[in-house]
Design brief:
Helix 1 packs across helix 8. The protein has ten helices and seven strands. 50% of the residues lie in helices and 13% in strands. The structure holds 1,4-dihydronicotinamide adenine dinucleotide. The site of 1,4-dihydronicotinamide adenine dinucleotide has 30 residues, from helix 1 and helix 6.
């Protein structure tokens, strides 16, 4: 499907955001748009896409119906975006993702496949499809949204954590690979963030993740904190960026005493 809306980037810097219709993607779009960037919103949520573009003003971006699992759709939508930006893609934000909790044996084959296909293969598809555009844009960058679950893996989120570990590993490998073509790589590792994702995921069958976290008094950080971290990562240095005080504490402790961190997480999730 071709890009809707007629706005053109007209020399502005550009960012293409998957999962742009909600949560972290939308907050990041607003952050970059405030600084004068042109935003390509990509998502499967058609209504959400229209609302997202409206939120930053139709002159400041374009919408793209894109399921990140489909390689041909990636090619078509990036080509449509490039027409609006004269071939410029400064940042590809691979952000679309979802979480399904529960013990592995209790997850359906569809839930397992969906998490792997969107959270991991979607990122691989994006990096492959965008490669030529990124190479053609001086100073371009790929930003992959993983999770602190890509650093320490909580029980009852095994598949989700596996995909996020994989995205962290992929980011490390790509940072080295892309150095030869001058494309940067950033990997964002947020703690729990206040987005609709928390209402769709659950550790157990009884309550959604947001309620479980509240019962356990687990901190949840505002979405703007991730948007700010992404903005800073693009304008700063370093591959991995932990977001939220708790993520930074766990990341630090995990380097010193990984078994302690694992046991603590295990106890915490078991009480949920
Ligand atoms: P969200 O549920 O608010 O937004 C996710 C967006 O991705 C939605 O607009 C959805 O329609 C879109 N999406 C889902 N499947 C798609 C597909 N196949 N193709 C294209 N778009 C698709 O969730 P949130 O929290 O903003 O999540 C964004 C990223 O941040 C995800 O990768 C998630 O794993 C990660 N993350 C979220 C955390 C949180 O606590 N909310 C913590 C750490 C990482």
């Amino acid at each position: 499907m071709a890009a809707s809306g007629r706005a053109r980037a007209d020399g502005r810097r550009t960012i293409f955001i998957t999962g742009g219709a909600s949560g972290i993607g939308l907050a990041t779009a607003k952050r970059f748009s405030r600084e004068g960037w042109f935003v390509g919103f990509a998502d499967i949520d058609a209504k959400g896409l229209m609302a997202a573009l409206e939120a930053i003003g139709a002159a400041n971006g374009s919408t793209h119906r894109l399921d990140v699992r489909h390689r041909s759709a990636w090619r078509a939508e990036l080509a449509a975006f490039a027409k609006l930006t004269d071939g410029r893609l400064d940042v590809l934000l691979n952000n679309a993702g979802l979480a399904r909790g529960g013990y592995l044996e209790a997850q359906s084959a569809e839930e397992v496949d969906l998490q792997i296909d969107v959270n991991l293969k979607g990122v691989l598809n994006g990096c492959q499809a965008a490669f030529d555009l990124l190479c053609a844009t001086p100073g371009a960058m790929v930003v992959n949204v993983a999770s602190v679950a890509g650093v320490v893996a909580p029980p009852r989120m095994a598949v989700y954590a596996a995909t996020k570990f994989a995205v962290r590993g992929l980011s490390e490998a790509l940072e080295a690979e892309y150095a030869r073509v001058g494309v940067g790589v950033r990997c964002i590792l947020p703690w729990f963030i206040d987005t609709p994702l928390l209402d769709k995921a659950r550790f157990s069958g009884n309550e959604d993740l947001r309620v479980s976290l509240r019962h356990q008094k687990v901190p949840v950080y505002p979405v703007e904190e991730v948007a700010e971290a992404i903005w800073r990562s693009v304008h700063g240095k370093g591959l991995h960026h932990l977001v939220g005080g708790q993520a930074r504490r766990i990341g630090f402790l995990n380097r010193l005493a990984p078994a302690l961190v694992r046991n603590r997480l295990r106890r915490q999730v078991e009480e949920m």
